[in-house]
Amino acid sequence: MEWDTDWGLRGRMAFTMFLLFALYVVFVGVLTVYFGDFLFPMVMLAGFGIAQFFFSDTLALKSMGAREVSAEEYPELHRRIERLSQQADLPKPTVAVADTQVPNAFATGRNKKNATVAVTTGLLRTLDDDELDGVLAHELAHVKNRDVMVMTIASFLSTIAFFIVRWGWLFGGDNRQGGAPVIVAIAVSIVVWIVSFLLIRALSRYREYTADRGAAVITGKPGALASALVSIDGRMDRVPDQDLRDGSAEMNAFFIIPISAGFLSRIASTHPPTEKRIDRLRELEREMETA
To answer: Which residues of the chain have pLDDT under 50?
Structure first.
């Protein structure tokens, strides 16, 4: 299945990724010049990045308390995901469930062949059939667009910048070659981490709109996903603060609705405002009705 390209959205994603790439090129250049013993931490972090890339799905599921479930345990959920996967031209992903009252869903896995779609028991109790289809199709669109892989790669050097901000003074060398003090590299890393933090979240918000559009095409019912977003967003404000919220920051980009908290959460959010997503889905529904 291929859906029409939103060139405006794709252009914004491309520009954001270009800015990230340019930022990282400057970052690596500065570290190469100013960090005396940069090679050792880079090798360590590269190994960590590779491990994260290959095992992120397992770690994500464990961090969220989700477990793989069989077709015997959740037959209707398996049938639903298998049907939607066929409509999206995707292999059926692994199905996982997290036992929590917070209504949410997320996808993980580095490619289409080892993807996992996880839902919470709260989501299964909250949504009707069409709404649940919309949410599951949204997560399958993330899989089809390889969003987990893209965001993992995009955030790798940002992670290195954060590591240097915290531990860079341990690898500074003695500056015998007349290089600038280690504080220069650490200061640059602070700037890179802050700017990349905002760019990565902007990229995540753009990809969220794309996943919404993909879900609408898979199901043919943009209004169902819009209705689901209303239901989920309303419920998120009424669940306990400590349920599925602690330790979830790294997974926020892949939830159907973000777990938001803190000052300036909008600019740092991995998701666009729910009302804007709904407006776009309603507009897409009108376009599909008149097509």
So the answer is: 175-179, 238-251, 263
Span between the terminal Cα atoms of the chain, in Å: 18
CA atoms within 13 A on the CB side of 48: 12
CA distances from 129 to 70, 106, 126, 220, 225 (A): 20, 18, 10, 14, 11
The model's pTM: 0.81
Where are the chain's structural domains?
7-290
Strand, coil or helix: what is 106? strand
Task: Give the pLDDT confidence score for residue 209 in this predicted structure.
Answer: 92
- pLDDT given for residue 269 in this prediction: 81
Which residues are part of the catalytic machinery? Answer: 139
Binding annotation: 138, 142, 208
Other C-beta atoms lying within 10 Å of the C-beta of residue 285: 18
- List, in sequence order, every beta strand (DSSP E) within 3-150: 66-68, 94-98, 105-108, 116-120
pLDDT tens by residue, 275-288: 999 999 999 999 88
- Is the dihedral angle over the CA atoms 143, 229, 240, 70 positive or is it negative? negative
Chain Cα centroid distance, residue 291: 32
Average pLDDT of the chain is 81
Chain length of the chain: 291
Determine how many CB atoms are found less than 10 A away from the CB of residue 58: 12
- The angle that helices 129-144 and 182-219 make with each other, rounded to 10 degrees, is 130
Residue-level pLDDT at 127: 96
Binding site, annotated residues for Zn(2+): 138, 142, 208
How does strand 116-120 pair with strand 94-98? parallel
> Other CB atoms closer than 10 Å to residue 142's CB: what's the count?
29
pLDDT of residue 237: 52
What is the b/e burial string over 64-84, where b = at least 16 CB atoms within 10 angstroms of the residue's CB? bebeebeeeebeebbebbeeb
